[in-house]
Amino acid sequence: MKTILLFFIVLLLPFIGVAQPIAKQDSLNYYKFHAEAEYEMVGDNATSIKWLNKAIRLDPNDDELYLLRAFAKGAIADWKGQEADYTRVIGLDPGNVAAYTGRAACRFTLKKYKESISDYNWLIEVDPTYYGFFFNRGMCKWRLKDKEGACFDYRLATQMGSSAAYVLVMEHCLE
Q1: What is the DSSP code (8-state) at residue 76?
Q2: Dihedrals φ, ψ of 34, to 5°?
Q3: In a domain, 12, yes or no
Q4: What digits encode the pLDDT tens for the residues 86-143?
Q5: φ/ψ bin of 54: left (φ > 0), alpha (ψ from -120 to 50), beta (otherwise)
Q6: Measured between alpha carbons, how far is 171 from 14 in angstroms, rounded to an integer?
Q7: Greatest CA separation for the chain
Q8: Are residues 173 and 144 in the same domain?
Q9: 3 state SS of 161
Q10: 97 with 44, same domain?
C-alpha cells in the first residue's frame, strides 16, 4: 500500500508545479474581476481597493493593478495613495502616459506644482501637440507665481486650440 501511495505521489509531483501558476493566475483574475466590478458597476471604490490589494499581493509587478488602484484611490480622494500608485506604475512601465498624466494631475491637487511641472514636461516631450499638457503646466506655473511662464504655456495652448487657455490669456496675459 505504501508503495502504491508513493508511486502516485511521485507521479503527481510534476503536475503540482504546473498547477500552482495556474491557480495563482485564476486567483489573480478573480480578484481583478471583483475589483473592476466594484469600481465600474457598483461604485464601491473602497471594496475595489481591497480586491486590488489582494491581486497585488499575488503579482506585485503587474502595473495595470496599480493603475486601477490609483483610479479607485482618486475616486475616494486618497491623493497621496494615488500618487504612490502612479509612481509605482511608472517604475514598472517608464513609458506609461496614463500614469504620468494621472500623477501630474494628482500632484497638482496635492499642491506639488514643481513635481507636476516635471511630469508635464515629460508628457510634452512625448506629445508636443496636445494643448492640455501646456495648459495644465501653465496652471502649475501660475500657482508658483511664474506669470511669464504660465502665460507662455497658455499662449501655446491657445495656438493649439484651447478656448480655456484663450480666456486665461485675455484675463492675465495682456499688458
Answers
A1: T
A2: -65, -40
A3: no
A4: 999 999 999 999 999 999 999 999 999 999 999 999 999 999 999 999 999 999 999 9
A5: alpha
A6: 72
A7: 96
A8: yes
A9: coil
A10: yes
